[in-house]
Structures are given as structure tokens and as C-alpha cells.
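Q: I have 138 residues here and want to know how they pack in 3D. Can you give me a structure?
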Amino acid sequence: MRRSAPRALRVRRLGCLLIGHGSRVAGANRVLLRVARRLARQVPGWAVEACFLEAARPGVQDGVERLVARGARRILFVPYFLYLGGHVGRDLPREMARARRRHRGLACAAAPHLGFDARLVAVVADRLRRGTSRAGWD
């Protein structure tokens, strides 16, 4: 009977790099780290790391290094951005190209940014209700 390796030692060939903008305010960055932890529980078989484009660490290439060290040979760059702007349209493709140059044979692809999603409308409606309540307008 073959035993499987302990969870921490298993090689994850698929890597998810969750990428946020980053902030000088540490508490703001913890939100993305929390999303990454929850996401990792929902996508078994994937190695998940969070990173930031600006103003915070780890940076994108740091995240790539962590995933490669965990055995990832395919990395999906997942932008945690609402809009298709310069970061998503210009900076992420540059970071993917840089990762490929640094790691021979590494496959990189990009997932779509958050953009419009009806599920986000429900989140905004919830915030509207909460804001109304906090303001005493209910």
C-alpha cells in the first residue's frame, strides 16, 4: 500500500498567484492574505500564494519564487483588481514574462480580473445596508 506524502511535503504542480495592488497600510494588505488562505482551502491540489504589485511585500516575483519552491510548474496569475487598467493590462504581462525568463520551462497564464460580476452587486448592496444602519438612517 502506497502512503501519500504529508500535506506540507506534497508537490503542487499548479500554482495560483493572487495579486493585489498593495498598500503602505499593513492592515489593508492582510485582507488579500486572508482571501488567499480561504482560497487555498477551496482549491485542493493548488499551491496558493498572495503578493502585491506596489507598496507592500511580498512582490510578484517573490510570490513566483515561493510557488516554484513549492513545486509549481504552471502558475496562474489571478489579479484581485476590479478594473482592467495599467496594472492588469500592462504590468501583469510584464511580470509573467519576467517569471518565464527567470524559470526555464515555467508556464504562466493570467485569469481575468474581477470586473463586473453580479455576485459583487450583492456585496455592495450588503455594504449599503450596513452603511445605512451605521449612519442611523434605517
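Q: Anything worth noting?
A: The domain at 11-134 is CATH 3.40.50.1400 (Rossmann fold). The chain has one domain: 11-134.
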